[in-house]
Amino acid sequence: MLQYATNKLLKAAFACFLVLFSISGMAQEPVHSGNREIVFRAVNVIPMDKEQVLTNQVVVVKDGVISAMGKSGEVKYSKDALVINGEGKYLMPGLAEMHAHVPPVDEFEPMEEVLKLFALKGITTIRGMLGHPRHLELRDRIESGQLISPRFYTSGPSFNGNSVKTPAEGAEMVRQQKQAGYDFLKLHPGLTPETFAAISSTAKEVGIPFAGHVSYEVGVWRAIESGYASIDHLDGFVESLVPGLDTIPEQQAGLFAMYIADQADESRIPKLMNALRENDIWVVPTQALAERWIAADKDPEVLRQAPEMKYMAPKTLDNWTSTKKNLMQNPQYDAAEIADYVQLRRKLIYEANRNGVGLLLGSDAPQVFNVPGFSTHHELKYLVDAGLSPYEALRTGTVNIGRYLNRNDIGVIKPGAAADLVLLAGNPLEQIEQTQQIEGVLVGKRWLPKSYIEQELRKLEKR
Questions:
Q1: Contact 213/235 with Cβ under 8 angstroms?
Q2: pLDDT of 166 higher than 60
Q3: pLDDT tens-digit map of 286-304
Q4: 189 within 8 A of 160, measured Cβ to Cβ
Q5: 98 φ, ψ to 5°?
Q6: Tens of pLDDT along 106-159?
Q7: Do strands 446-449 and 31-32 pair parallel, antiparallel, or not at all (unpaired)?
Q8: Cβ atoms within 10 A of the Cβ of 134, count?
Q9: What is the tens place of the pLDDT at every residue in 13-52?
């Protein structure tokens, strides 16, 4: 009898152990807010409306909106709220990546992986810069809450020298993309002054913005006059500083004029900045391209071994490595001159910020050694390296995004604002790298705690 009882107790204990083991080993799920309030308690808030930290705050979120905010003890919330201890931590608005690339493919899985990488790294808004018809379906799925994803603004398929051969083709393509429901048009290189004029005039006629590259034959001055929604990559900027550009073939100038930067007349910079500001042209520098792909001081084999590269497929890394190596082996490539080129780009970014030109955060990812989500944080550091303060750099991915999108509920923390939030371990106003120390993300009405983020990142590893 004693033996029987002992065996029974052992079986019960073992069964209890299995239950506990299975619970502790269960995949953690993100918290769906639904009608339940989410409360950040005793947290330091970086509201981003000005350079300040509000200490010991309570921030209450309901149904994806900040419903209340104030000093601890002064704000009420429901008893069944999910309370997140923010003591010693910093709450800031989610970041935006304004030059993202969601794979332009028919399958949803690779698209969703990229979107999730962005969200897990605190990117709560993205602008997709190379569209595809299925992106419209993807946007609908995001808006209905089916996916863990940033909010998604998408362009249509690219306008370039191959897709647009005549002005009539350009005008028709604009109308088709407007009718389809894309948010904006993406311009790539290869457009002529004639095809560009047809595209830009038709876009204004039907009411759809256009953004992206500045074709070499079009030039930045015509681009500014036409009213680009944003010029990305500083495309055309260096060219505008080079006297006698008409005599230089595009191939000789190189990507973003990297091979003719030594001919730039920097006394022309004020004219460029005045034109950008007066015409309200926004700029997405994507300095990460220059600092990681183009710069000579970043060895491709070293970049390939960076921790975040494990989220990219080996074939992709092979392509990125060979792309950078081929660039550095080009007879026109001179390491010292490229270093000067990168420095000139930093100066252009600094002057744009100093002269009141609107800057938007964007890194161009996935792209050569730019991993979705991770590269956005690198871009912030490159903006600081260019001379911006951490607060000024953070504005490009928060407050400025709200201004650009004409939404005063994005990029700030205040009652009534969208609850796109990132909880950080340290203060990014003191050290910009603190944006990478993520304790949790609130995106699309879902709270993603650090444990969930780490778990999901492990699932996305490719090697």
A1: yes
A2: yes
A3: 999 999 999 999 999 999 9
A4: yes
A5: -95, 5
A6: 999 999 999 999 999 999 999 999 999 999 999 999 999 999 999 999 999 999
A7: antiparallel
A8: 16
A9: 333 333 332 323 334 678 766 678 999 999 999 999 999 9
Residues 402-415: tens digit of each pLDDT? 999 999 999 999 99
Helix (H, G, I), strand (E, B) or coil at 427: coil
pTM over 0.85: yes
Phi-psi region of 160 (alpha: psi -120 to 50; beta: other; left: phi over 0): beta
Among all chains, which residue has been given the structure tokens 């409306």? 49
Give the C-alpha separation, 395 to 380, whole Å: 10
Buried b (16+ CB within 10 A) or exposed e, 403-433: ebbeeeebbbbeeebbbbbbbbebbbbeebe
Pull the structure tokens for residue 260: 């003719």
Percent of residues, the chain, with pLDDT higher than 90: 91
Query: In the block, which residue shows the tokens 């969930």?
Result: 452
Does 373 score more than 60 pLDDT?
yes
Burial status of residue 109 (CB atoms within 10 A of its CB: 0-12, 13-18, 19 or more): exposed
Kindly give the residue spans of alpha helices, DSSP state H, lying in 93-218.
108-120, 133-143, 167-180, 193-206
| pLDDT per position as a tens digit, 184-200 | 999 999 999 999 999 99
* CA pair distance 201, 153, nearest whole angstrom: 22
Pair type for strands 421-424 and 90-93: antiparallel
Q: Which of 381, 408, 383, 357 is nearest to 47 (CA)?
A: 408
CA-angle at 138, arms to 132 and 142, nearest 5° = 145
Confidence (pLDDT) at 19: 32
Q: Report yes or no: 30 and 148 within 8 Å, Cβ to Cβ.
A: yes
Q: Is 59 helix (H, G, I), strand (E, B) or coil?
A: strand
> Which helix H or strand E contains 85, and what residues bound it?
strand 82-85
Peptide bond into 366 cis (omega under 30): yes
